[in-house]
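_Backbone structure tokens_
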Amino acid sequence: MMTEFERIQKFGFTASELDRAVISMNKANETAYIEKSKKKSDSYVSRYLNNFLKDDAALSNEDSYKITKQLLPTLTLKEVNALISKYYTDLNRDVIIMGPEKDKATLPAEQTINTWIKEVESQSLTAYEDKVSKLPLLAKEPVKGSIVSTQELKDIHVKEMTLSNGVKVILKPTNFKNDEIRISAFSAGGSSLYPDQDYYSASNAAGLVDASGLGQLNNVELQKYLTGKNIAITPYISERYEGLYGSSDKEGLKNAFELIYGYFTEPRLDNDVYQSIIARSVGSLENRESNPSNVFSDKIKEALYGDNIRRKNATVELIKTIDKNRAFEIYKERFADASDFTFTIVGSFTEEEIKPYLENYLAALPNLGRKESYKDLALTEPAKGNRVVVQKGKEDKASVQLAYYGDYTYSELENVNMDALESILTIKLLERLREAESGVYSVGASASYSKLPRARYSFGIGFGTAPDKVDVLIKSAVDEVSKIKKDGPIKEDIEKFVIEQKRQLELQLKENGFWTNYLSGSYQNQEDVTAIQRKLEDLNQVSVESVKAVAEKYLKEDRMFEFILLPDAK
């Protein structure tokens, strides 16, 4: 690091580096200006605060755009390089090194570090050579396919298309932003299809590929290639799916679809990236057991899933099981066949604008005609609850998590009532544990549920407190649960929930991100995508009795786990 700082100080930056910086800044300025009519109120708060508190100028969107547009072309390499000698000095320098307590004796002393710095300053350096690849991103152009069928879902302004290679595309043009396009894709399979010994290679494969660049460009070359382009495309492999997600503007659409095509057909996994990621991951984990939160999390997962590698937190030993060649094989297997992929594209485009990209890139993706799905790993929590106490840490504080798990009756109405239970119980816990008993600063309930591969739910209550108040507050929390199970919530709390949910729905329906996740999730769960139209109707059916019923059904006393983190015994 010191060598590179020294190189910058001696030779400065290059003209091509400054050019890319200016291009990026100019793109950000243009994007902000294009979206000025769609900005949310909260985006103005910081500029008003800084004007009031620091006397900074509170520029209008118009003035900010014009000033940046005016000043950017005037930047010179001489001016930028002059700042290096002004701010990079060896005066008042602090060097801070953190490491495990066990390695304290071997960490470098001040004299050693000063010797390193002198060595750097005395070495003969050459100027940085800014290498920019002239190769195209893709080695070969895709072979164009076609759209073979189109189905219109008029009620929600969505079109479902099937391409010649079997790829399914869900399109929803919107005007929520002036120039934003969200893309998401999935296919069933994921790491569930691989044995335990391959689990870490499979679950880290996409991250390793993503960090290695793409096609003919390594990661550094790819970043330079994408300078000034408002594009982000990322591949993933989860337990049950593989796919991609990202975003673009209209100008960058061609490059975005090039990236998508490349992640299927020309992925790369560079050895230096692999070595770097493994080394950094191992380094970050070597001291993890000194952190009480990590030990607590390990014990919770052990109580719920035993020693199953797919649910354990990462350790140095597990990270070292990642095999570069096997990870790359798995990645290529998962993306070898696009015929069962579903793409969701939402945002500021028209059908005519997007069609050429669907035909030239998505319809050109490989088609092996595989028929596969994910594997149900049957990793479920125990049917009976338990009390798990962990003693770790010096601070005089405790953390408590109460949790319920079990089979679930998945439906639109059940889900809404479960959300209501979460919201209403959070209100009651705050009123009792924080306000009435002054035992916690924050407390809340959280509900989650899933339909596939089997319908399951989890419901949690979490808070931090003083060690001597743990049992009293657990008793109070359980008492609030019992009250809702016995009498149901009060009507006023239901009204609060319904009002807030309707407001949130009103906002969500104007977000590209919401529609991308909703449509993609609906297709994953094989659900009716028009169900969103019934959400208001479902909210109006939430009642004292319906919330009481889900509380009785799912918050059963014998299912409750008590996970408690206390400081070390004195």
Remarks:
- The radius of gyration is 28 Å.
